[in-house]
Amino acid sequence: MEIQTFPSEIVFFDLETTVPNKTGQHFHILEFGAIIVCPRKLEELDSFSTLIQPKDISVVSLRSSRSDGITRAKVRDAPSFEDVAEKIYGLLHGRIWAGHNIRRFDCVRIKEAFAEIGKAAPEPSGIIDSLGLLSDKFGKRAGNMKMASLAAYFGLGVQKHRSLDDVRMNLEVLKHCATVLFLESTLPNQLEAQWQNSSKIMTRSRSNKQIAPRAMPYSKGGSLGKMTQNVKNILSKAQGNQALQNLIKHSHSLLR
């Protein structure tokens, strides 16, 4: 049976996995979550999430450090990846894939999981990796490029590290960043200069526990304080990327 594809639709997806702590161990998918997004309005059209029981349930921790984390008890009665593979394939295949760090992590894990059950992996019609995109265009004004940091920067709440919650947060972060980039594109000289001449604040480094200066764009509470460099580049590159054009168009609608 031929599966219908939707090459212009965007599917944001995220995986929660085990973390290998020994040589030779590999990642095991514990949860899959995805939302299908209309590229014209960036509205959520459909969603799906499921916990997944790995073949060896002992690789899952008995307890989680997070209040809503995934534990062995939670996945004990969950379906296997093979049980949900057809559903996941139908959601992903032929759509534009979007997510944070998906090129290096989630895409690789999906291919590994399908190979493990001897089935063809889904293929995207395009990929939007918000980690690479925002690293290049938005910069490290949030401190680093982690989703939790970007979400906190825009006041979008705390990252839950659950697949469906994280993909919805990912979409909102992109909307906010696109709006900021659109604002900068209207007055690049003033707003780019404001970011480049940003004040310094002192932050504590986790690695050496010493106080170190870090550039921050504006004082707390400045609604136009979240600005970036290289605005002209993203606008020119967006001409060949329909998904980026849609993000910028959505930003414009938010300002009306």
UniProtKB/TrEMBL annotation:
<keyword id="KW-0378">Hydrolase</keyword>
<dbReference type="InterPro" id="IPR013520">
    <property type="entry name" value="Ribonucl_H"/>
</dbReference>
<dbReference type="InterPro" id="IPR012337">
    <property type="entry name" value="RNaseH-like_sf"/>
</dbReference>
<feature type="region of interest" description="Disordered">
    <location>
        <begin position="202"/>
        <end position="223"/>
    </location>
</feature>
<keyword id="KW-0479">Metal-binding</keyword>
<dbReference type="InterPro" id="IPR036397">
    <property type="entry name" value="RNaseH_sf"/>
</dbReference>
<keyword id="KW-0540">Nuclease</keyword>
<keyword id="KW-0269">Exonuclease</keyword>
<protein>
    <recommendedName>
        <fullName>Exonuclease domain-containing protein</fullName>
    </recommendedName>
</protein>
<dbReference type="GO" id="GO:0003676">
    <property type="term" value="F:nucleic acid binding"/>
</dbReference>
<keyword id="KW-0460">Magnesium</keyword>
<feature type="domain" description="Exonuclease">
    <location>
        <begin position="9"/>
        <end position="183"/>
    </location>
</feature>
<dbReference type="Pfam" id="PF00929">
    <property type="entry name" value="RNase_T"/>
</dbReference>
<dbReference type="GO" id="GO:0008408">
    <property type="term" value="F:3'-5' exonuclease activity"/>
</dbReference>
<dbReference type="GO" id="GO:0046872">
    <property type="term" value="F:metal ion binding"/>
</dbReference>
